[in-house]
Amino acid sequence: MSATNEELERQRSKRKRVNRMKKMIITTIITFMLTTVFVLGFLCFKIVSLQRQINSLSASMAEAKLEAEEEAIASDGELDDLYAVDNMDNLAEAGDIPRVYLTFDDGPSSNTDEILDILDDYNVKASFFVIGKDVEEYGDDYKRIVEEGHTIGMHSFSHNYSNIYDSEEAFIADYNKIHSLIHEVCGIDCKYYRFPGGSSNKVSNSSMSVFINYLNSQNTTYFDWNVASGDATSQAFTADELVDNVMNDVVKYKTSVVLLHDSSNKETTVEALPQLIESLQASGAMILPITDETTVIQHVSVVQ
Ligand code: ZN
Fold first, then answer.
1. Looking at residue 44, what is its pLDDT?
2. Domain check: are 138 and 158 in the same one?
3. Quick check: is 157 in a domain?
């Protein structure tokens, strides 16, 4: 009887152990399943939020691309109203008598009187695109230029590129300064202009069309050049070389507008001038001052 009891007792405790193990296994399975469900839920949430971020990023990228395209179109539009002038009908043909316009920029200075003396010696008229900043010292040369039959033109008051080309307002203010200065000193309503750096300069912040349109509104004609003596390049040409540079080019055109400088550091230009005039005269060229009849030489122009 006691053996049967022992046996029953053992079976009961075995059943208990088995039940405990079953519970443990079930609990483990349930815990595992719950964890899995939780992790899956978390991952799903992450995926959705990442997808949202990607969508908003690609939307803002598309927006930025559109803006860049619009900007490109806008700047193309600015260039559209400027075009390079080819001057093809100015190419020399057999039998042409070359017309040569000597133009002096950046003066008056300590060299201007000597240049005027040389021009007087040869009875040659030229054109001076003057600046205004040294007027107190050289104002008399403004008068002398006009009185001796040369053409006076404007080359800005300050000759400070970053200032003049900063905005339309800055350009107009500088233009009015040099225009009224010439009017005060010489009694002339000056209608000729040379852009510092030329109309094709690459330093202007604004489109040159803004400034060209302003000059047009003032009935002021701007002249660039098609022959450069080279007296303003970094290369230090000798007087002979300056003459050669001009003589090599003037044969190409009916009308040559020659770029020279009468600023204070251009002694070589003064030195070259007598020989230049003699060479031009020997070649049969006419040396003339700029007038309203002069063929206008421009690098760029605006579409009308
Ligand atoms: Zn200049």
1. 58
2. yes
3. yes
CA of 263 to the centre of ligand 1 (A): 9
Q: What is the domain count for the chain?
A: 2
Q: Which residues lie closer than 8 Å to 155 by C-beta, 6 or more apart?
A: 105, 106, 129, 130, 131, 178, 193, 194, 196
Is residue 197 included in any domain, yes or no?
yes
Q: How far is the CA of 127 from the centre of ligand 1 (A)?
A: 14
Q: For residue 128, how far is its CA from the centre of ligand 1 (angstroms)?
A: 11
Residues measured by CB to lie within 5 Å of ligand 1, the ion? 105-106, 196
pLDDT band of residue 73 (cuts 50, 70, 90) is very low
> pLDDT (tens digit, 9 = 90+) per residue, 113-126?
999 999 999 999 99
Q: What is the pTM of this model?
A: 0.74
List CB contacts of 123: < 8 A, sequence separation 6 or more.
none
Give the Cα separation of 241 and 244 in Å (integer). 5
CB atoms within 10 A of CB 156: 26
**Domain boundary, last residue among 73, 94, 125:** 73
Spacing, Cα 161 to ligand 1 middle (Å): 9
In a domain? residue 132: yes
What pLDDT shows up at residue 75? 46
Tell me how far the alpha carbon of residue 96 lies from the centroid of ligand 1, in angstroms. 31
Q: Which DSSP letter does residue 90 get?
A: G
AA letter at 70:
E
Displacement of CA 80 from its chain's centroid (Å): 15
Distance 197 CA to ligand 1 centre (A): 6
